[in-house]
Automatic annotation (TrEMBL):
Family listed: Belongs to the peptidase A31 family.
Domain of life: Bacteria
An example Gene Ontology biological process: protein processing
NCBIfam families: hydrog_prot
Name assigned to this protein: Hydrogenase maturation protease
Molecular function as annotated in GO: aspartic-type endopeptidase activity; enzyme activator activity
UniProt source species: Chitinilyticum piscinae
Entry keywords, A to Z: Aspartyl protease, Hydrolase, Protease
InterPro entries in alphabetical order: Pept_HybD-like_dom_sf, Peptidase_A31
Pfam families the UniProt entry points to: HycI (PF01750)
Length: 171
């Protein structure tokens, strides 16, 4: 899915029709893998008070937050994570229901960099009536390092603006 694909924006619009939990996951010590955490931190700072949407930076331990998410009033969960093996250029975006993307029936053929924990969390959340989506950003480098690749940084800034626009801003 290209960065400017209109179906991407339409997909986000659909997700944000219901109260949504935006969950950034990643490892801040592994270069591009930090993108989900970065996006969550930036969004948390700009979402308006009183919005029905929530933001959580789960880092690389989404399993520690799964029951809190399951019991929360949000109906949709949007997981933001780096993805690998999609064959797409670095910074490319993928969006869809996690269960569809995992089974290969969607356009996404790569995997989240946190696949096992994410699959388990998704299963529990779905059992609690949540719809779980993945917004994946194709990673270039997940080696140890503290800086994201320029293409990943550019995509992160675009995703922040899109999510903030759909979820509502405080300023």
């Amino acid at each position: 899915m290209s960065r400017t694909d209109s179906s991407f924006s339409a997909g986000l619009s659909h997700i944000f029709t219901r109260p949504t939990g935006i969950v950034g996951i990643g490892n801040t010590l592994r270069s591009d893998d930090a993108v989900g955490c970065y996006i969550a931190d930036q969004l948390e700072a700009c979402l308006a008070d009183g919005t029905p949407h929530q933001v959580l930076n789960a880092e690389d331990v989404i399993e520690n937050y799964v029951f809190r998410l399951a019991e929360s009033p949000v109906e949709h969960i949007l997981v933001v994570d780096a993805v690998q093996g999609s064959g797409q250029p670095a910074g490319s975006l993928v969006l869809g229901r996690l269960t569809e993307l995992e089974t290969g029936s969607g356009v996404f053929l790569g995997q989240s960099t946190h696949k096992l924990a994410l699959s388990m969390a998704s299963s529990i959340l779905e059992q609690h009536g949540k719809q779980v989506y993945l917004l994946g950003i194709a990673a270039e480098n997940i080696d140890f390092g503290m800086q994201m690749s320029p293409d990943i940084q550019d995509s992160a800034e675009m995703v922040i603006a899109l999510l903030a626009g759909h979820a509502g801003r405080s300023h």
